[in-house]
Design a protein that fits this description.
The chain has twelve helices and 17 strands. It is α+β, with helices and mostly antiparallel strands. The strands form three sheets. Strands 1, 2, 3, 4, 5, 6, 15, 16 and 17 form a nine-stranded mixed beta sheet that branches. Strands 7, 9, 10, 12, 13 and 14 form a six-stranded antiparallel beta sheet that branches. The N terminus is likely disordered.
Length: 431
């Protein structure tokens, strides 16, 4: 829940900005409510509806509105010197299916709250301040992440656009076309925006893990780096379906047992690598049995996903190679076949040291305790950072995890993060 607790506020910005932010959170939750949580599918009518609502807020603040050819929205409060590249802040507006309301939306709301405060106080920044709202960050529906940010850089591929929706209803390219986005624009290899006009990009985001929420004092974080990943949407183990009572163990080619064998080897290897000091996270988030699965049938087919993450490209690639080796061994030992679909790669991203220092100094200036921590989740910031844009991230504490309908965030935590952003914008050119 997003609860107001005025006693904990430390500034006029926090106390007055809370009501503005809360209305956005409440309104967007209401318009995207699902059976559980919220659903804002990438490149859907619902995502468009939310973007239009947020754009209307930008218009009410007299921000200059531009839509890029990848469907993202740029809303600018003019600065004193418009020849300077802009300070940009924002995030994505889509969500996972039946997920939480704050993943992505918190970053957009914080950026809008800063713009609102500038208008309320009559503050004019040295350079343009731009709120960036991006489409399609989540991979849940099409198996591809960062579609909006990659699209604005012209770095989607024809293979990306051919990816099927999880329900098979359409391809990513068809969904984007339904939003007026042309394939040749997002796959052309050239940025659709002038990246040289971005001096800094700061993304505020809920942490999505328990580290900050476990802290008594520091409820905000400055991110030290963003893990990249290697993913497989669908790895298939093909064995042989057979009668569960009539087929003795030596004659079985059990796809599920092969899967569990592979997972055990991966898990043990993961432990060994962590002991050695490697930064590594492994997840199989999707596991599907064949449609013929039954209590009396030896599993003949299993399909699962792979998600390997690390701050080190080398670590992720070596662990991926090890997983492929294990799969080959299991093929021979258990008489099954393991088929990997094409791997999807996202490079890890460092953050800009100078921009991160601005965030740290801003937090200190506002007497807001913070800690430094890595981002285990991927973000659009990584895409922008890997394409030459100085990026930094602010994390705020959240409760009950993320990518689930129970995702929660306290007002005072969010507003502390928003205040760090406000201080960074207002003092950026003093650094």
């Amino acid at each position: 829940m997003f609860l107001l607790d005025e006693e904990n506020f430390m500034s006029e910005f926090q106390s007055k900005g809370a009501a503005f932010a809360q209305k956005i959170f409440d309104d967007v939750r209401a318009m995207s409510k699902d059976v559980q949580g919220v659903t804002r599918q990438a490149f859907s009518a619902k995502e468009t509806e939310v973007l239009e609502y947020l754009t209307a807020i930008g218009e009410s603040l007299s921000l200059e509105i531009v839509h890029d050819k990848a469907g993202n929205v740029w809303m600018t409060l003019p600065g004193k010197d418009r020849s300077l590249p802009a300070f940009v802040s924002g995030s994505h507006v889509d969500s996972v299916p039946q997920g939480g309301n704050y993943d992505g939306l918190a970053g957009v709301t914080a950026a809008l709250t800063v713009a609102w405060w500038m208008r309320e106080t009559g503050f004019v920044p040295v350079r343009d301040y731009t709120v960036l709202m991006m489409r399609g960050e989540e991979s849940s529906f099409f198996g591809k992440a960062y579609m909006g940010s990659l699209g604005m850089l012209g770095k989607l591929t024809e293979r990306d656009l051919a990816l099927k929706h999880r329900d098979g209803s359409c391809t990513l390219g068809e969904a984007m076309a339904g939003c007026g986005i042309k394939a040749e624009d997002v796959t052309g290899g050239k940025p659709l925006v002038d990246v040289n006009r971005i001096a800094a990009f700061v993304e505020l985001h809920i942490e999505q893990g328990p580290t900050l929420d476990s802290q008594k004092e520091a409820r905000a974080g400055v991110v030290t780096g963003i893990r990249g990943n290697i993913r497989h949407k669908a790895v298939k183990i093909i064995g042989e379906a057979a009668h569960s009572g009539a087929t003795d163990k030596p004659y079985r080619h059990d796809a599920l047992m092969a899967f569990t064998d592979l997972m055990q080897r991966i898990d043990r290897a993961w432990d060994r690598w962590l002991i050695k000091g490697e930064d590594l996270v492994y997840t199989t988030g999707v596991l599907k049995m064949a449609s013929s699965a039954a209590i009396s049938v030896i599993p003949g087919e299993v399909t699962f996903s792979v998600d390997i993450r690390s701050l080190s490209t080398d670590t992720a690639e070596r662990f991926h190679t090890l997983m492929l080796k294990y799969a080959k061994e299991i093929e021979e030992e258990r008489g099954v076949k393991v088929e990997f679909d094409a791997a999807l790669y996202t490079a890890p991203s460092g953050v800009d040291a100078n921009l991160s220092k601005v965030l740290e100094d801003s937090a200190a200036a506002e007497s807001i305790p913070f800690i430094r921590l890595a981002s285990g989740a991927g973000h659009d910031s990584a895409v922008l950072g890997n394409n030459g844009i100085p990026v930094a991230m602010i994390f705020v504490a959240n409760q009950l995890g993320s990518h689930n309908p129970h995702e929660a965030m306290k007002t005072e935590d969010f507003m502390q993060g928003a205040e760090i952003l406000w201080a960074a914008v207002s003092h950026y050119d003093a650094h």
